[in-house]
């Protein structure tokens, strides 16, 4: 019976939305392949998920390194029924000041690793005629974002990429879903060095990662193409669609600049 269970591979599975998604899969008795950079965190989360009665394979990889993303594909022996590309990072600051290598690593992680894993596992799914892929987007992908120019651009890629391959493979038996959250209470902003930004100062306005994961999980299981998590985020994206990109960028600049640079009126 154990071997008949489906398996979900989840990147970024030890924290935030990825962790909450892994819990939902485990609750529904999916066996798990969890991927993150730190073995100790993986081992801790693997032990937790095993207590839910599922098999867990924990693989430590830094997916910002392309050779490690490709090695992950080679090392996974199990059939993957669901792929969740959750791992992602940003960096905060003006583009002229931020570190180039850090931004290239973010492009490698947010874009290249997503393409590598999707390419590998979608071929396997296509041969079976079934499978599900969930890519973590962001409302950032719909909003040009000063102070996070590269991150916002990577998420625009994710949304376009997911929509395009969904259309290509609409008769394949594989579904492609983009989860599009807004500001969520995870460690993302701390890792990005973004704690001084106005947009993250109001912790009460941040979404709960468990709620975001639930929205994404339900959309994935329903075969939906995209879900924007949270009413406020739906409104923001709808409003942005009616505005020139330059106006959207100006609004995001005001929201994302450091608090000590905000105008007094």
UniProtKB/TrEMBL annotation:
GO terms for cellular component: membrane. One of its GO terms (molecular function) is oxidoreductase activity. Keywords: Oxidoreductase. Pfam families: adh_short. It comes from the Bacteria. The keyword Oxidoreductase applies. Belongs to the short-chain dehydrogenases/reductases (SDR) family. PANTHER family: DEHYDROGENASE/REDUCTASE SDR FAMILY MEMBER 7B (PTHR44196), SHORT-CHAIN DEHYDROGENASE-RELATED (PTHR44196:SF2). This is SDR family oxidoreductase. It comes from Mucilaginibacter phyllosphaerae. The lineage of its organism: Bacteria, Pseudomonadati, Bacteroidota, Sphingobacteriia, Sphingobacteriales.
């Amino acid at each position: 019976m154990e071997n008949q269970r489906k398996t979900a591979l989840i990147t970024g599975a030890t924290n935030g939305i990825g962790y909450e998604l892994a819990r939902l899969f485990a609750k529904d008795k999916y066996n798990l392949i969890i991927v993150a950079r730190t073995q100790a965190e993986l081992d801790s989360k693997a032990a937790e998920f095993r207590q839910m009665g599922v098999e867990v394979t924990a693989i430590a990889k830094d997916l910002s390194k392309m050779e490690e993303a490709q090695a992950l594909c080679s090392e996974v022996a199990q059939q993957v029924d669901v792929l969740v590309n959750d791992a992602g990072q940003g960096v905060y600051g003006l583009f002229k000041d931020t570190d180039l290598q850090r931004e290239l690593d973010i492009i490698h992680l947010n874009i290249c690793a997503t393409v590598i894993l999707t390419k590998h596992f979608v071929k396997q799914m296509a041969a079976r005629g079934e499978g599900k892929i969930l890519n973590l987007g962001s409302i950032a992908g719909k909003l040009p974002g000063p102070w996070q120019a590269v991150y916002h651009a990577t998420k625009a890629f994710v949304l376009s990429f997911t929509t395009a391959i969904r259309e290509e493979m609409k008769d394949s038996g594989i579904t492609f879903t983009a989860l599009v959250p807004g500001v969520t209470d995870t460690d993302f902003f701390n890792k990005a060095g973004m704690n001084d930004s106005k947009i993250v100062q109001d912790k009460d306005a941040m979404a709960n990662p468990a709620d975001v994961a639930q929205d994404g999980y339900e959309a994935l299981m329903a075969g939906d193409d995209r879900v924007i998590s949270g009413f406020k985020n739906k409104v923001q994206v709808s409003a942005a669609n009616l505005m020139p990109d330059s106006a959207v960028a100006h609004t995001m600049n005001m929201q994302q600049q450091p608090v000590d640079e905000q105008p007094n009126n």
